[in-house]
Amino acid sequence: MSGLWADRGPYHAWADYLENWAAGAVDLTTPPALAPEDLPQDGWQRLLTRIDQAVSSRLQAWADALVAALSEAPDEFSAGRALAQSRAGLRQVLLLTRVPSLPEDFRSQMAQAVGKQVQRVQFDLERELDRAVTAGLDARWVEARRRTLRDNPLTAVLSAEPAAAETPAPAWSYDPAGGGRRRVVPR
Question: Do residues 129 and 149 touch, judged by C-beta distance below 8 A?
Answer without folding.
Answer: yes
